Amino acid sequence: MKELTFVMRMMMKEKKDIVLSIVFGFIAGMAAVLLFSASGYLISKAAFAPPFYTLMLVIASVKLLSFVRAFSRYGERYVSHRGTFTMLSQLRMAFYEKLEPLAPGIFHKYRSGDLLARIVGDVESLQNFFLRVVYPPVVLALVFMSTIFFTTFYSFQIAVILLIGFLLTAIVIPAIFAVHQRAIDSEVRIKRASLSTEVTELLYGFRDLKIYQQLDDKEQKLLQASESYIKEQDKEERTTLFNQSLNQFISLLVMVAVLAAGAYLIGRGELDGIFLAMLIMITLTVFEEAPAMAVFPIHFNDSRRAAKRLFSIIDQKETPVHKEVLVIDEAPEIQMEDVTFTFATEERPAVEDVHVHLPSGSKTAFVGASGSGKSTLMQLMLQLITPNQGKITISGTEMASVQQESIWKAANVVLQENHFFYGTIRDNLLLANDTVADAELQVTLRKVQLEHFHLDDRVYERGENLSGGEKQRLAMARAMLKGGKLWLLDEPTSSLDAVTEQIVYEHVFRQAADDTLVLISHRLAGLEKMDQIIVMDEGKIVETGTFAALMEKQGYFYEMKKLENNLL
Questions:
Q1: Distance between CA 143 and CA 365 in Å, rounded?
Q2: Which GO terms of the molecular function aspect are on file (predicted)?
Q3: I want to staple 495 with a disulfide (CB 3.0 to 4.6 A). Which of 114, 157, 468, 488 is the partner?
Q4: Lowest-confidence pick of 97-106, 449-458, 549-558
Q5: How many whole angstroms separate alpha carbon 278 and alpha carbon 218?
Q6: Looking at residue 497, which CATH number applies to its domain?
Q7: Residue 224 domain-assigned?
């Protein structure tokens, strides 16, 4: 039950709708019982040709009860679904508030398709928690207990039969099926996540799959995931139908028992025969709600698994109670001391025992082979991930106690992969600073050699209509518009030719003259202007110094530069 604690808290925020749902449900259930009992009594009474006014009273009661039943059922449906939708909305918001601080590190642990299945599918599954798990047992118990109490005024023996039927259909059989259902441990949610993942990868990688002629294999995997999901759904449906059929069968047996007991009691003179039809109709009506309990174990286990899958994501990390808002008005100083970080699914540290000092206003380049840990260090500086050990300080304040937004507000960032939204060039530039006028946007585009773009030019989803170089220059333009005092550039010009790269860097370094700048690059050309160069290999710093000092040392950096010159 601990998986459903959070859901219960969300549900209890809608106490008014919960109470109203139970009240309307109870009225609708009792109105149905009284309606059919009055109908049964009317049939028996009419056979004895009573005075007309007697029949008129019973007929009027039947009509009144039918109206009460209809209106109360409508009220129950309206209030219960309103409460459920409100709960789902609150649940999504609460989940997102807990999930947002974990991004983007959460993508290191979960595939995007699986995350999508949990956020959408598992939340949708929890809508049944109130409608199918909490609400039906309460209303069913109230209606049954009231009906049994009403029946005792006519026949104690038949009231006992109804009680036994209630215990069987509402408690014993659902409990047996609950144990059985837990043993089956249906994997519908897991199969749905697998299918969602395969669909996501097929859509995102469609072009590459086409080029490498692997589309058929991927489609086959998608079909297998789909078939597996359908089989799990079919298994769940068969179990549901079997549970409902068995519960309905027990209900019919109870009705036969009531008929037999009634006939026996009439024969002995312990029951007036005019009430037999009424008691049978009561039995038939009250057990109409019993099938809802047949699917109770399925919905309960489904809700429990959905909640467990959903909140296993956000329970992995404790969110700090309070973090400081750091105002960075001047170029920050960054210090790393004995920093080590290992990704969750990896055994080898991405960076290990790193000591770095970036003075205020300095220009630092991180170089090294792919996988040496350069981009990981940048993620640590942005607090996108937190070190497993060691300490990072920014302007003398420990970064672990600083709100992420404070750092992001001061940082002009260009990542290796930058996202571009569907819209216009103007829309994507204004992400950095929505107060900039069109004239300044045009000037910035000229600085990055994109003067052929118009601000109203369309940008497709993920920038599909832009070349790699155009994406990088547009990302650089966004960084230049941001106006922060910390520049973090991760391979910002890898797709540019040497001439364009030099022009772009000239504008960047001119604008960042007094700022702290960090450049991650595979290219070693143009690093002479950097205050320090940090050389990394296999997650460790192997050399540090200026361009001249490292060349004079003739170490790792010297060999990298020599190899680059030979290749060029």
A1: 75
A2: ABC-type transporter activity; ATP binding; ATP hydrolysis activity; ATPase-coupled lipid transmembrane transporter activity
A3: 468
A4: 97-106
A5: 63
A6: 3.40.50.300
A7: no
Count structural domains, the chain.
2
256 and 387 housed in the same domain: no
The residue whose two tokens read 């209303």 is: 139
Ranking 50-54, 135-139, 227-231 by mean pLDDT, the lowest is: 50-54
Are 421 and 449 in a shared domain? yes
Tell me: do 302 and 412 sit in the same domain: no
d(C-alpha 127, C-alpha 299), whole Å: 10
Indicate whether 535 belongs to any domain. Answer: yes
Q: Specify if 89 maps to a domain.
A: yes
| Domain end call among 283, 314, 345 | 314
Residue 330 contacts residue 308 (beta carbons within 8 Å)? no
Cis check: omega of the bond before 104, within 30 degrees of 0: yes
- Are 163 and 303 contained in the same domain? yes
How many C-beta atoms surround the C-beta of residue 58 within 10 A? 17
Could you read off the pLDDT of 303-352 as tens digits, one per residue? Answer: 777 777 777 776 654 444 467 888 888 999 999 999 999 987 778 899 99
Question: Which residue range is the domain that position 558 belongs to?
Answer: 334-567
C-beta separation of 439 from 466 below 8 A: no
Using pLDDT thresholds of 50, 70 and 90, give the confidence band for residue 564: confident
CB-based contact 563:522 (threshold 8 Å):
no
- pLDDT tens, position by position, 105-132: 666 666 666 677 677 777 777 877 877 7
Q: Which of 148, 151, 157 is nearest to 266 (CA)?
A: 157
The verdict on 264 and 412 lying in the same domain is: no
Is 432 in the same domain as 370?
A: yes
pTM, 2 dp: 0.65
- Residue after which a domain boundary falls, among 314, 345, 379: 314
Residue with tokens 């259909």: 169
Q: Are residues 369 and 484 both part of a single domain?
A: yes
Compute CA distances 175 → 182, 253, 509, whole Å.
11, 19, 71
**C-alpha distance across the termini of the chain, in Å:** 65
| 3-class SS of residue 546 | coil
Place of tokens 């207990």: 145
Q: What DSSP designation does 343 have?
A: -
Residue 267 CB contacts under 8 Å (≥ 6 apart), including other chains: none
Is 241's pLDDT higher than 80? yes
* Residue 493 DSSP class: T
Residues 167-216 have pLDDT tens digits of: 988 888 888 887 776 655 556 767 877 887 888 788 878 877 888 788 88
- What are the φ and ψ backbone dihedral angles of 156, each rounded to 5 degrees? -65, -35
- Residue (of 420, 378, 386, 379) closest to 402 by Cα position: 386
Look up residue 41 and give its two tokens. 């009594």
